[in-house]
Specification:
The protein has one domain. Helices cover about 85% and strands about 0% of the residues. α2 runs antiparallel to α3, α3 packs antiparallel against α4 and α4 packs antiparallel against α5.
Length: about 160
């Protein structure tokens, strides 16, 4: 039987892992469906779906599960919802050419990252080096999002 800490970690991480799996499958299906008619937008969307929706989401889930051992479930769910709404906003905005939607989605992604960084601050971390490494990566992501939004605006 898993320990209380392990079950709490899995409870915090599981929504992120399930969503990450869905994103990776969706990205694979999009790549397969557009293999012979790939456009710049579908190539970008495929990469974004797999890398941000899938890989980054799985890493965030792992961080909330195992590095933020005292994170409360409402904070976890808020980060999960904001991260996924942000991804959908960025995707829809970029594919439809609606810059305001892309910016709104990017803002939600930054807020989700801030919540996850806050979640890793509660209590004494079991793995302080990993927590700090994760925080550095999360800050780099949070800074790169506005940079990407500026590039999207310039390219629009």
């Amino acid at each position: 039987m898993p320990s209380a800490g392990a079950s709490g970690a899995l409870r915090r991480a599981l929504p992120f892992f399930i969503a990450a799996l869905v994103y990776v499958i969706a990205g694979g299906l999009l790549a397969a469906a557009t293999a012979y008619v790939t456009t710049q937008k579908t190539a970008w969307a495929t990469a974004y779906i797999v890398l941000v929706g899938g890989v980054v989401q799985a890493v965030l889930g792992a961080a909330l599960g195992w590095l933020a051992q005292r994170a409360r479930m409402p904070l976890t769910w808020a980060a999960f919802v904001l991260f996924n709404l942000g991804n959908l906003g960025v995707l829809a905005g970029q594919l439809a050419g609606v810059l305001a939607l892309t910016f709104a989605g990017g803002a939600l992604l930054v807020i989700a990252l801030i919540l996850i960084i806050i979640a890793t601050r509660r209590g004494a971390p079991a793995h302080p080096v990993l927590v700090w490494a994760f925080r550095v990566v999360a800050v780099i992501l949070a800074v790169s999002i506005p940079t990407g939004l500026v590039l999207a605006a310039v390219g629009a």
